[in-house]
């Protein structure tokens, strides 16, 4: 499918037949793009925690990602998620101060100066949502959609749940009646990440080798199918 070519059927303008034709065209575009291309995108969309900090992102860059995610499904089509964009250095530093990195890399304190994220998107919902499953599911779908959209633009990032309660205040979310459900750290990746087969007995701990390559074990298809 061509970027930005999403068709919206407006019942006042388009008759049902036009909608059907447009639907079929989109389905055929998607088929042409090939399942292979989509699977490759998903595989290439890894978690990145080190970035080229000299390459900044603008609010428009972040808006373009949310513009993709706004078409993602939400329960009952309620669309209660809101997206707080942070790309100026002060706000990025404030986000950074409120979360942790890579719990499994015990001797790594997070990215050094020069390799930190250059932007964040806080996926938010009305205060009180964090304790309910459905808003968190909506947020997860939106988060992955943003990450995939980011990857198509040469960007990468990390979904972050290990943020503290101070984030909401520092981003001015509380005063808008919102809280962050998942935080997305973004930038131009500056690290090598490789996928590998999970170890024996389903060992899935990610790890870094002596060349600083980040390894992410994944279970096999047969292990997943029940
Ligand atoms: C819901 C969720 C929360 C996460 N929270 C954090 C986090 O707080 N800090 C972090 O460094 N990584 C976090 N991650 C990234 C995971 O560690 C990462 O997805 C996992 O190691 C697998 O790597 P992959 O994304 O390349 O498949 C989170 C991922 C998800 C999906």
Notes on the structure:
The chain is an alpha+beta fold and 226 residues long. It has 2 domains: 59-187, NADH Oxidase (3-Layer(aba) Sandwich), CATH 3.40.109.10; 193-224, Single Sheet (putative fmn-dependent nitroreductase like fold), CATH 2.20.180.10. The chain has helices at residues 16-44, 59-69, 89-97, 133-152, 166-170, 221-224; strands at residues 82-86, 119-126, 156-160, 178-187, 193-197, 207-208, 214-218. Strands 1-2-4-3 form a 4-stranded antiparallel β-sheet. The chain has a 3-stranded mixed β-sheet with strand order 5-7-6, with no helix packed on it. Helix 2 (59-69) crosses helix 4 (133-152). The chain is globular, with a radius of gyration of 19 Å. 23% of the residues are buried. The model is unreliable at 1-6 (pLDDT under 50). The structure holds flavin mononucleotide. The site of flavin mononucleotide has 13 residues, from strand 3.
* Assembly status: single chain
Number of domains: 2
Arithmetic mean of pLDDT: 91
Low-confidence stretches: 1-6
- Structural class of the helix and strand makeup? alpha+beta
Which strands sit side by side, in order, in the main sheet? 1-2-4-3
**Biggest sheet overview:** 4 strands, antiparallel
Name the ligand types. flavin mononucleotide
According to CATH, the fold-level topology of the largest domain is: NADH Oxidase
**Amount of helix:** 25-40%
Order of helices and strands: HHEHEHEHEEEEH
Kindly report the name of the CATH homologous superfamily of the largest domain: NADH Oxidase
Shape: globular
Q: For the terminal residues, how far apart are their CA atoms?
A: 33 Å
Radius of gyration of CA atoms, rounded to a whole number: 19 Å
Enumerate how many helices there are, as a single number.
6
CATH class of the largest domain: Alpha Beta
């Amino acid at each position: 499918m061509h970027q930005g070519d999403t068709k919206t059927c407006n019942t006042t303008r388009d008759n049902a037949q036009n909608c059907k034709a447009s639907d079929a065209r989109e389905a055929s575009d998607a088929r042409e793009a090939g399942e292979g291309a989509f699977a490759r995108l998903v595989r290439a969309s890894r978690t990145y925690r080190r970035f080229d900090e000299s390459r900044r992102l603008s609010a428009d860059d972040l808006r373009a990602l949310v513009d993709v995610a706004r078409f993602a499904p939400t329960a009952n089509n309620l669309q209660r998620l809101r997206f707080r964009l942070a790309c100026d250095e002060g706000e990025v530093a404030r986000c950074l101060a409120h979360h942790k990195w890579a719990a499994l890399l015990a001797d790594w304190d997070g990215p050094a100066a020069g390799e930190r994220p250059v932007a964040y998107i806080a996926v938010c919902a009305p205060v009180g949502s964090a304790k309910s499953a459905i808003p968190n599911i909506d947020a997860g779908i939106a988060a992955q959609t943003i990450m995939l959209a980011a990857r198509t633009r040469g960007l990468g990032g990390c979904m972050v749940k290990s943020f503290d309660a101070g984030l909401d205040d520092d981003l001015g979310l509380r005063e808008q009646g919102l809280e962050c459900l998942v935080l997305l750290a973004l930038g131009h990746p500056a690290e090598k990440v490789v996928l590998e087969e999970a170890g024996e007995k389903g060992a899935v701990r990610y790890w870094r080798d002596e060349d600083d390559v980040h390894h992410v074990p994944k279970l096999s298809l047969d292990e997943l199918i029940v």
